[in-house]
Every structure is written in C-alpha cells, then in structure tokens.
Amino acid sequence: MDIVVCVKPVPDPKQWSKLALDPVTKILRREGIDTILNPLDRNALEAALVIRQKVGGKVRVVSMAPPFTQEIVRETLALGADEAVLLSDRAFAGGDSWATVLVLAAGIRRWGRPDLVLCGAESADGSTGQVGPQLAHLLGLTHLTYVCGFEDASPERLVVRWQVEDGYARVEVRLPAVLTVTKEASKPRTMTIMGVVQARNKPLTVLSAADLGIDPATCGLKGSPTQMGDMWMPESGRRQEILRGEAAEVVMELLTKLRELAALPCH
Amino acid sequence: MEFGFSPEQELIRKMAREFAEEIIVPRSAEFERTRVPPVDIFHAMGEHGLLGITVPVEYGGTGLGHLARMLAIEEISRYSPAMGFMLQVFALGAAPLLDFGSPELKQKYLPALASGEYFATVTVTEATGGSNPFGLTTVAEKDGDNYILTGRKVFITGSSLCRLHTISAITGQDDRGRKIVTAFLVDSEMPGFKSGREEHKSGLWGTQLGEVVLENCVVPAANILGRPGDGIKVAMKAISETGRPGIAATGLGVIARALQESVKFASERVVGGCPIGDYQGIQFKIADMSVALDAARYLCYRGAWMKDQGLRCDVEMSKAKLFATEAAMVAARHCGEIHGGYGWLEEYVAQQLYRDAAILIPSAGTSEMMRVVAGRAALSGK
After folding, report:
1. Tens-place pLDDT, residues A193-240
2. pLDDT digit string (tens) for B200-227?
3. A48-88, pLDDT tens digit by residue?
4. Whole-prediction pTM value?
5. How far apart are the CA of B76 and the nearest CA of chain A, in angstroms?
6. For domain B121-229, is the CATH number 2.40.110.10?
7. Which of A136, B85, B114, B351 is an S-S bond match for B52, by CB 3.0 to 4.6 Å?
8. Alpha-carbon distance B180 to B260, whole Å?
9. Does B64 lie at the interface with A, CB-CB under 8 angstroms?
C-alpha cells in the first residue's frame, strides 16, 4: 500500500508562553522556541507505520515548510518512514490552508495516486483542520476527518473509528482515501538510535515551486483566498467590584449583575 | 575548527530527550521515592539502541562512537542524573570486552549487551584499593583450564543487576615481587559468584550499588581480557577513557538542568516588585552556571572526539571529569540558593541535583586523582 503522511513543523506548544506578536508586522516572533513535528501528525505517521507493517507497502512523508525544518522532517525517517519530501520555496510563505494544499497535492502527485493519505486532524498552531478535506478534494479522493482508531486494514479497505459526539462510529473506508486522525488514533513510538542510523540512507528531497511546476502566483500569500485582516494578543484580567449595603439588597444586586453578564439564566 | 554537531548527532540528542520524556520522566517520581532501580527502563535503553552506541555494527550495535554516547548521557542526565549514570555504567562495562576481548567472547556477549538483554559493569574497586589499582587483594589461581577467583569487590554500580563483570585479580608476582594483575570477564552465572551487601547512597536514587563476593568462583581461562598481567591496563583504559567521560557527561546534564531550573525560577519568583532574575546577585550565579556549562561541554566533547579518532585521551578525559563534576556541584548549589527555601524541598529538583552531583565527584576517581593525572601530564610537558 502506498501511504502518504502530511506533516507540519510547528512551534513547540510547551513553549507557547514565549511566543510574541510583532505589533507592526503581525508576524509571530519564534526566537528561542523549538520547532517540533505537529503532535497529531506523529499520530498519523504512527498509524501509517502500523498499517504498513500489516499490509506492506511504503510510507512517504510530505511537508511544506521553510528549509530550516529539514532536520525536523528527517525525524520522520528515523521513526520509520521510507522517504520524505520537503516542499520549500519563498513563494510558499504565508499561504492559507488552500494555498498549502495546492503545494502538498503537487508534491503527492509526483508519486502517482496514493492508496491512503493521512494527516493530523489539525495543526497545533493554525488549528484549521481544513488541510485534510481540501487535499482530498484536490486529489479527487474520499475523506474522513477525526479518525480516532484503526481496527483493521487490507489493501482495499480500512475499518476505523470515527470520532462522534459522546463516542465513535465504526466505519469501513474503501481506499483510496484521505483520513485525518486524532491523538486517540495511535500512540506514537519514540525514536531509536537504530532509526536515527537508518535515516542516514533514506531519501529526503527538497523541492521548490519550479521543481513542482507551480506558478508562484497561485501559492503562498498571493494565492491565498483568505487574507488576515488583523491580529492581536487578547487582553485578559480580573475586575473587582465590592457590593455594599444590606445583605438582601446586595444579593439581589449580585444576581442582577450575574444575569447581565449571562453568568446566570434570566428566569 | 568545527563547533557544530552533524544532523545525525543532533537527532541523537533529540532521540535521547524523547526517551527521557516518554520513558524516564513518567517513572522518575517512583524510583526517586522507592530508590528501587527501574530495571525495565534499563532494558528499554537497550531496545532503543542506547546501549549499543559504542558497540560495532557487526556485534549488534550502531558504532556511533563516544561523542554520540556523551550526547545521549548528557541529555538523559538532564532529566535524571541517576538514569544517565546507569547508562554510562553499562557502556563502561562493555568497554573492556570491546578493547581486550577475544573474538569468541565478543561474539558471545556483545550482541546481548547492545540489546539490553545483559548488562555489564567494571568490578575492580576493593576496600584496600580505590584510587590505588595495585591495592587489590582478590586472587585468581590457575586450575586446569580455569581460574579460581577469591575476593571481595566494593562500590560496584550494578553489582547485583549486571550479568557481566570485568574483574581484576592477582595471578602471581613478578621477579621484583610486584603483583601480576589479570582481568577476567566473569558471568554472574558462574559458580562462586555472589552479590554482597547493597549500599544506600545519599543520591542518584534508582541506581544500584553494592559488593561482589567471589567464593572460589570458577572462571574459564578463555575469559581473560587481554593477556595475563594486563589487568591494570584493562581496568584503567576502561575507567579513564569510558568511565570518566561518562561521569563527566552526567555532570553536564546536572549543570544544564540546574541552569534551566534556575532561569525558570528566577523569571517567575517576584521579590520586591520584580523577578529575582532582575537582581545582579542572581544574574551572577546564573552567568557562572552558563559559562561553566559551555566550558565543561568543550572539555568533554573534545575528549570524546579524541576517543573517536583513536587518540589517547586519558588526560583530557580526566580534565573533563574534574571540571564537569566540580562545576555540577557548584551549579546544583547555586540552583538551590536561587530557589531559597524552596530549593531544599523535595518537590523541587534543586535538592536532588545537589545530592546527585556530590556522588559524581568520587565516582571513577576523585577530583584529587584527576588533578594528579592532569598535574603529572603538565609537569611532563604533555
């Protein structure tokens, strides 16, 4: 089975307290913050490796990210992927999910039609959850989002758990398909020294817009249907107010205020 | 001059960090409380390839070398000096076999050491020896194809956990009446091998330290490491070129963690309207830790690089061990002081770092012995 896993390098969520927003450029300042593989993408990769173990085939990884993330992408090879491609070009910068998917789809098509594409359900930084479904649309494949478990796999079909409110539904998915996975879908393995050594001889290719035959005007910020209007850090704080007077009056006043704040029902 | 690491070495550091976060940290509160060595973690080290870093590929390892080993120990020690210490001991235990073992012994035992099926240690120290390797009293008498070993070894890390022990014993005297010392690879399954009393240390909880008792222990002559009479050379090469850098790397982890915790606390703890990190007194301590970490790293990495190049590095490793462990002790004390009273509460790691760092100083040779090595080398123009 030909499996493709889409991964995204993201700022380490454990260090988000260090993230700052440049008030003028509206660009996130990432200095001093480690970049890691998006946590849910590791769940997707783990699922792919388990399926490969069961039915055979290849696991390929594709990522659209700046060149400095090459070593992050290499981790996927150390974890067991067979091949990785990093799609990296200044023209790709600032793309929304649609512009990103255009590039990812071009990267995936180089390998022909995959049997299965796996993505994390959402990224830790953008959290749109749109890449999987949009990718399925562009590749002309069916899709299922929020897969929270894998029960069976064969070259033609998968039996998965699809997360629904208050539980899951067991779904049979005919391949080819695009699935996005939640953290419950798998328990990602940890790297091993043997994996690190094996990664040495696995292909990791960096491709530009020209390599992919993509018109720079269609991708990145220029090719994004959604444009950011503004961005700001929300302010939060505590407000104090002391109510004085007779106990009964104070209680009624408190109830009124709480209702005004929609903290209590109006009736 | 290159100061950076290769992408592969960076990945090894990351792999070790991941191992620590996923496998050690969830268990550390338990072994720090019970002081029981988490043997399953030691086996997991093998399964993840951490015990085979210095073992050649043909014997089931990855042969990545001593700099890679140092990075792994440093990173794991940042989370748990005790686990970093055990990781270094197991590679120390494999070193005499790697350097002096016969092809048959290597084939028989190295794959099991690389995979974590067996653990190994160096069982040399005696109550009458310590820093004087000739102070030993354990004897080995030839008996046909075997040697019969009798004696008692002390301060052995992994004494009751390790299957393989490199044991030095007196096998005779030379013309001038000096002891002839021979090294044997002893399997704990051999008749007459016993684990003696267990020691209880003030730190590095989760490690295991104790005695080994040899009561007419029968060891095949084929298990001699090197040649008869090479015992001191076998032990000293392992201790000076693998043991000391391992302890030094554990020290690097302690310094790095002490710095990390100090920066965190100094940024969060507000006194007099500002974080205590705004005060120069605190900044000076943090600066000293930061400089010590850089200096210790350069000494340690240079020594490990020399070892990987096949260069003699006993003096460099002694300097690295001296500096890194002394700096670890100071950094741990500074860390505790920056935390004020909190530093000595069990829920803060500062007190643990202090207890752990103290044990690194006498391990594999005291600071005084490291100074003797460095001093003699300097006086002889090396």
Report:
1. 999 999 999 999 999 999 999 999 999 988 999 888 888 778 888 888
2. 999 999 999 999 999 999 999 999 999 9
3. 999 999 999 999 999 999 999 999 999 999 999 999 999 99
4. 0.90
5. 14
6. yes
7. B114
8. 49
9. yes
CA A39 to chain B, closest CA, distance in angstroms equals: 13
Nearest to A193 among B7, B22, B50 (CB): B50
pLDDT at A38 over 90: yes
The superfamily in CATH containing domain B7-119 is Acyl-CoA dehydrogenase/oxidase, N-terminal domain (1.10.540.10)
| B:9-38 residues touching chain A, CB 8 A cutoff | 10-12, 14-15, 18-19, 22-23
Q: What is the mean pLDDT of chain B?
A: 96
Nearest Cα to A47, choosing from A189, A238, A200, A229?
A189
The Cα of B4 is separated from the nearest Cα of chain A by a number of Å equal to 14
What class does CATH assign to A2-218? Answer: alpha beta
Domain residue limits, chain B: 7-119, 121-229, 233-379
Three-state SS sequence of chain A: CEEEEECCEEECHHHHHHCEECCCCCCEECCCCCEEECHHHHHHHHHHHHHHHHHCCEEEEEEECCHHHHHHHHHHHHHCCCEEEEECCHHHCCCCHHHHHHHHHHHHHCCCCCCEEEEECCCCCCCCCCHHHHHHHHHCCEEEEEEEEEEEECCCEEEEEEEECCEEEEEEEECCEEEEECHHHCCCCCCCHHHHHHHCCCCEEEECHHHHCCCHHHCCCCCCCCCCCCCCCCCCCCCCCCCCCCHHHHHHHHHHHHHHCCCCCCC
Q: How confident is the model at residue A267 (pLDDT cuts 50, 70, 90)?
A: low
> What does the DSSP 8-state code read for residue B1?
-
CB contact under 8 A, A78 and B22: no
CB count within 10 Å of CB B97 equals: 25
Q: Is A194 on the interface with B (CB under 8 A)?
A: yes
- CB-closest option in B10, B22, B52 to A190: B22
CATH number for the domain whose boundaries are B233-379: 1.20.140.10
Q: Is B47 within 8 Å of A199 when comparing Cβ atoms?
A: no
